[in-house]
Design goal:
Blueprint lengths: L1 E3 L6 E3 H23 L4 H12 L3 H30 L2 H28 L1 H4 L2 H4 L2 H20 L3 H4 L7 H18 L3 H12 L4 H25 L8 H19 L4 H23 L12
Antiparallel strand pairs: 1-2
Helix pairs in contact: 1-2, 1-3, 1-12, 1-13, 2-3, 3-4, 3-11, 3-12, 4-9, 4-11, 7-13, 9-10, 10-11
């Protein structure tokens, strides 16, 4: 779509402007989501629907493809940045351990979600959607209170989670996510932090990597069925690559406490927003018919 300014001169390419805006929004959303260990599509899909007016299914598919690209880039850049700032041999083993941990969490979380499938179909649980949003905000608040009252020296964990801890964390987070309809990292982040005693940077990389791995097949299916937006998927992926790469490169430089606080703020904002939008009637707006 083009508009000619003043009847002469250069025309205004609205589609190109929208593509640039989508790329910038994608970069910022993936950057913030990756730092929090959260899937970027949760925030990026509503942004696309609001900015472009596209159907929710198309916005969700486009944002999911961007989140996969951004999350994968985030993990790669985080591992490369760590290898540059530490001993190469030690970080080579660390990178293999991180990739194995991502695969373990992906498999175990998928198994947990599949096991919780029959229970998630119970109608009574579907009616608790609003309550689960409150639980998500509560998790963010509890983690925030814990991290702000813990000395910084105690947060500098260096212990790598055992295979059992990864399996248990993945199964519990996957099942809880399926039952509550909350994002998997909402459960996985505190589990890895408290039960697995993993460093904050490793927790973030594991969460983003596991969620990105789980989204690869759904994103590929959506692409084959033509659900992706034909105009804005490419700029969204370009922005996601930039945002994910920048977040991965800067992750090791951020204080662990700041990263965890950002996770808490993002979780509380996302589910506070969902809770507000879910309310059918704001307080005081109901009219008594009697």
């Amino acid at each position: 779509m083009r508009f000619r300014l003043g009847g002469r001169g250069r025309s205004l390419n609205v589609v190109r402007i929208k593509r640039n805006v989508v790329a910038v929004a994608s970069a910022l959303t993936v950057f913030g989501g990756s730092f929090a260990g959260m899937p970027a599509q949760i925030a990026f899909a509503p942004i696309l629907t609001w900015m472009l007016g596209t159907a929710e299914a198309r916005s969700a598919a486009t944002s999911l493809r961007a989140a996969v690209a951004g999350g994968s880039t985030f993990v790669c850049f985080a591992l490369v940045a760590s290898s540059w700032r530490h001993q190469p041999a030690g970080m080579h083993a660390g990178a293999l351990a991180v990739l194995a941990g991502i695969a373990t969490l992906f498999v175990s979380a998928t198994a947990g979600a599949a096991a919780a499938g029959p229970a998630a179909a119970i109608p009574a649980l579907a009616r608790l959607k609003r309550s689960w949003y409150s639980v998500g905000m509560g998790i963010g608040l509890v983690v925030l209170l814990q991290v702000t009252h813990t000395p910084a020296a105690d947060q500098a964990a260096t212990r790598w989670p055992t295979l059992l801890q990864l399996l248990v964390s993945g199964v519990v987070a996957g099942a809880a996510s399926r039952l509550s309809n909350l994002a998997t990292p909402v459960w996985l982040y505190p589990l890895l932090l408290w039960y697995g005693h993993a460093p904050v940077s490793v927790v973030v990389v594991l969460c983003v990597g596991a969620v990105s791995a789980a989204a690869i097949l759904p994103s590929a299916w959506q692409g084959r069925h033509g659900i992706l937006d034909p105009h804005y998927t490419t700029p969204a992926m370009v922005g996601a690559l930039v945002g994910g790469g920048a977040a991965g490169w800067l992750l090791q430089l951020a204080p662990p406490r700041m990263v965890t606080i950002w996770f808490c703020l993002v979780v509380m904002f996302l589910y506070g927003r969902e809770l507000a939008l879910f309310s059918p009637e704001p307080p005081g707006t109901r009219v008594d018919s009697n």
